[in-house]
Structure formats: structure tokens, C-alpha cells
Write a structure and sequence with these properties.
Blueprint: E1 6-12, H1 16-29, E2 32-35, E3 51-57, E4 69-73, H2 79-89, E5 94-100, E6 107-112, E7 115-120, H3 137-147, H4 157-163, H5 173-176, E8 185-192, H6 196-200
Antiparallel strand pairs: 1-4, 1-5, 2-8, 3-4, 3-8, 5-6, 6-7
Helix pairs in contact: 1-2
Length: about 200
């Protein structure tokens, strides 16, 4: 049985161009560069972690009414490390990261002004040097009020995700790619600098 897993990010307070630039810089520090998906030969036998793929809210459809830009990461394992880096790169933005790993339940982290604001659900915090406390109901309610969500103060991750009021679905990266997502998405592909495709480009 395949377990559903996903990594979804909802960013407010940053322009799409700033988000794209931040994503490029973050992945560059991990040795990845933007790459055109059309240049990947059909049936290409990709090595482990040769590519890092993202889905971004298609700018033809635009962000939602509150200015949210959606990012979906293929690499769930590094999702919180990436959201932590995005928060540092976009210090005036608010970022809500929803991560459901293959071996555990949904967990959520919220960032504002470049730092972690809320942790909702249990998480090993592998990207941090400490274990922040899980948010309590009053802090959750206060954030949802500023975010403009559907209200509520239940600190359970599933309830919080539903209260955000953003266009989203419980879909894996692979399931979102064909179009099974509430808004149009565009794919961004990054390739490892060690890849033969990158070296031959």
C-alpha cells in the first residue's frame, strides 16, 4: 500500500518573482540549477536526487485573492529545511508549510519575518538545532485571524489546514502534476550540477 505524502507551501507577502529568485538561490546552495523539462530525453534514467522538481501556482491564473503563492515540492524529506531557508530568504513574508511524510501524520510549520512562528503537530525538527514547543490553541487562533482563515483554534494539523482557506488538496506531487489541483500549476525543474545532462548542456 502506498501512503500519501506531500509538501505544500503557501506564501504571502512576497512577489512571485521574489519567490522564484529565493527558490533558485536555495537550490543553488544544494548544488542544483534550473533546467528545462523539455530538455530531459524521453525515458532518461535519472539517478537518485538528480532532479529536484517543484510545482508553482501558474501565474496566468495568478495567486489567490489574498496574494498567496503556492509551491509543491517533490522532495518531502527536505521540505522543512527548504521552508526554513525560504523564510530566511523572504524575511517579510508569511509561509505556511504543510508536510505529510510517508512515515507519519501531517505536521505544519508557520514562518513570519524570517523565523518560525508556530509548530503544529509532532515533528522531529531535523532542520533546527532545537525542538520548539507545539503551538497552543490561543496562538493558533491568533494566527488564523491575521491570516484571514476560516476561524477556529484547534491546534490539530488537519483542522488547521482546513481552516487556512486556501486552494489546496490532499494530493501527492505526482497526483497534482496532471492537473488534479484546485488551481493551475506550472512545473519548475532543477538539475544537479553533477548530472551529465547539466555538464553536457
Amino acid at each position: 500500500m502506498i501512503t500519501l505524502r506531500y509538501a505544500q507551501f503557501f506564501v504571502r507577502g512576497a512577489t512571485p518573482d521574489a519567490i522564484h529568485s529565493a527558490l533558485d538561490a536555495i537550490l543553488a546552495t544544494d548544488g542544483y540549477a534550473p533546467f528545462e523539462a523539455a530538455r530531459i530525453p524521453p525515458g532518461y534514467p535519472a539517478e537518485a536526487r538528480e532532479f529536484d522538481r517543484w510545482l508553482v501556482a501558474d501565474q496566468k491564473g495568478g495567486p489567490d485573492d489574498a496574494g498567496t503563492v503556492t509551491l509543491i515540492a517533490e522532495d518531502v524529506r527536505r521540505a522543512f529545511a527548504r521552508s526554513n531557508a525560504l523564510a530566511a530568504a523572504l524575511p517579510r513574508a508569511t509561509i505556511v508549510a504543510l508536510v505529510r511524510p510517508v512515515d507519519g501524520p501531517l505536521r505544519i510549520k508557520v514562518y513570519h519575518d524570517g523565523t518560525l512562528l508556530l509548530k503544529i503537530g509532532d515533528d522531529p525538527d531535523e532542520e533546527l538545532f532545537y525542538h520548539p514547543l507545539v503551538a497552543e490553541a490561543p496562538a493558533v487562533a491568533a494566527f488564523l485571524q491575521t491570516w484571514g482563515g476560516d476561524g477556529g483554534d484547534e491546534p490539530a494539523p488537519e483542522v488547521f489546514a482546513a481552516a487556512l482557506g486556501v486552494a489546496r488538496a490532499d494530493r501527492s506531487f505526482a497526483d497534482a502534476r496532471p492537473g488534479d489541483w484546485p488551481r493551475p500549476l506550472a512545473e519548475r525543474v532543477f538539475v544537479s550540477a553533477r548530472s551529465r545532462l547539466y555538464r553536457e548542456a
